[in-house]
Design a protein that fits this description.
Helices cover 47% and strands 9% of the residues. By secondary structure, the chain is mainly alpha-helical. The chain has a three-stranded antiparallel beta sheet, with no helix packed on it. A two-stranded antiparallel ribbon has the order 1-2.
Length: 370
């Protein structure tokens, strides 16, 4: 089985097909992907759904399971298979085995599969009655909003197959490392790109989707507009359609103007801010790609000898510095474009722990003085 990029004849929208061993689209998956495409899901999301459903179909094929008669027990077996593809339900290992995939990855795959099953259940294509939802009281929620008392008697629904996740903080760069990475850039575009990620905290897809009209400076305000566009190259998208305006320091605008004046190709049919500057596998002036960004990160690792440089780590570094400078979490949420403030709190809870430790150390010092 394989995933193949294609185009819907009816709409012309780019979608991703899952092909069987005879290189024919698997119809149940095609039906679901087409449905998602009609809801204007991004091409990047459709690609993720296709690869997740490909894994599901490989599991069904391996154990000769009819997709129309799937059971909860078989879905549970799918989780074991995702952890260890060599999984055999008839063999119980007495030694602990390392999971091939992270818990968060497994949960994402299971969510897609459950949505796929629900879609076909509503179409009466699945004969079995598989219900993976579990009812929980509203009081079990971690985050309780201002109006929680109004809805506290109501229940919310979770996924019975959800795996418990461990969420270690991914880390962040020190100020010295950031400066070393920026100094390791070979051209103005790369210096501007890395500096923008660090100073704004925007996602890599949001940066790649920037147009010149999105950068505004009128002497008093220096801002970047994050706008969700459906026709971005390589689906450089705005997650959750979190359109917003991000203030940036004047130094970022100076880097932008230097790049635009001295390095930006003169005659190109493109209004993207970040474009290819050199003729390699892609045309000069064509929009910068995700692969181009990750290639830049690998090059910077070699030049600076700083390991695991990723564009998302600059976002974490920016947020960490904001919180350490006593920014309110609600402001950080808006700047990062998080959909829920609980996401911001859960991601950066390590900073709260550090504050508690610092406060405790001060308490001990004051106690000694007394």
């Amino acid at each position: 089985m394989k995933v193949q990029k294609g185009q819907l004849p009816s709409t012309g929208k780019i979608v991703w097909f899952v092909l069987d061993r005879n290189y024919k689209p698997i119809k149940p998956i095609l039906s679901y992907i087409s449905y998602l495409a009609s809801l204007n899901r991004s091409s990047k999301s459709l690609k993720t759904y296709a690869y997740n459903l490909k894994l599901y179909w490989e599991y069904l094929d391996r154990y000769s399971i009819d997709w129309k008669s799937i059971t909860l027990e078989q879905l549970s077996g799918f989780i074991h298979w995702l952890r260890r593809p060599e999984y055999d339900p008839l063999v119980i290992s007495i030694e602990p085995k390392t999971s091939k995939r992270a818990e968060s990855t497994i949960n994402n795959i299971i969510t897609v599969v459950c949505q796929f099953i629900e879609y076909h259940q509503r179409l009466n294509n699945i004969h079995s009655c598989v219900d993976t939802t579990i009812e929980r009281p509203a009081s079990a929620r971690k985050f309780k909003g201002l109006l929680h008392h109004i809805s506290q008697s109501k229940a919310f629904y979770g996924n019975l197959l959800r795996v418990k996740e461990s969420k270690p903080f991914p880390g962040c760069f020190t100020p010295e490392q950031v400066q070393k990475i920026i100094s390791g850039c070979n051209n103005r575009r790369d210096r501007f790109f890395i500096s923008l990620l660090y100073e704004s905290g925007i996602r890599v897809g949001e940066a790649l989707g920037l147009r010149h009209e999105d950068i505004v400076s009128d002497g008093k305000l220096n801002r970047i507009s994050i706008i969700a566009r459906a026709n971005n190259h390589e689906d450089a998208s705005v997650k959750n359609y979190a359109q917003r305006t991000v203030d940036v320091p004047v130094s970022i605008l100076k880097l932008y103007y230097d790049y635009y004046i001295y390095d930006y190709p003169e005659i190109i049919d493109c209004d993207y801010v970040f474009v290819n500057l050199y003729s390699s596998e892609v045309e000069i002036g064509s929009p910068m790609t995700y692969n181009g960004v990750y290639s830049l990160c690998r090059s910077l690792e070699k030049r600076t000898r700083i390991q695991k440089i990723t564009p998302h780590l600059f976002r974490h570094t920016h947020a960490t510095e904001l919180i350490r400078s006593k920014w309110d979490m609600s402001y950080v949420k808006e700047r990062l474009g998080h959909k829920h403030i609980q996401t911001t709190i859960d991601t950066y809870v390590h900073l709260i722990d550090e504050d508690i430790r610092e406060a405790f150390d001060k308490y001990i010092e004051n106690k000694k003085e007394c």
